[in-house]
Amino acid sequence: MGLIRFIAMPTREARAFQGGGLDAYGSPPERRISDGDGVPCRHCLRHVPAGRPYLVFAYRPFPDLQPYAETGPIFLCADECPRAMESDVMPETLRASTEFLLRGYDGKDRIIYGTGSVTPKRLVCTQAHELLQRPQVVYLHLRSAKYNCYQCRIERA
């Protein structure tokens, strides 16, 4: 096993949205049909195939409202999909991007200053490992550098 692990959206949350649950703003997810290009599901960490339905909604990957609890749009398969296995291998949905935002958080879900950076794809695993060597960093969020969309969580293996 590697030094880090990429972690998908929890199944409990995915099933709630797939079942019509409201998003972080209290709105129902929008249902669309994938064109097969650039619709990354945050639960299975695969692209939604062309012609298949998906959901888009506001997601806040934090347990509580607080100043650092960012909210942004994400995609999710509209139908139940299997959760991606935790792995040290970069998920399929991340391989097409060239840059990401990488940020470290403490045990109270607050950003740790000095951990945020725009990170080239080729350096994500190395940078994540280095940040997770800091004792105060409990986990990382990986976000799109272009749109700030949440991609996944990264933790120590």
Automatic annotation (TrEMBL):
Protein name as annotated: DUF1203 domain-containing protein
Taxon lineage: Bacteria, Pseudomonadati, Pseudomonadota, Alphaproteobacteria, Hyphomicrobiales
Lineage: superkingdom: Bacteria
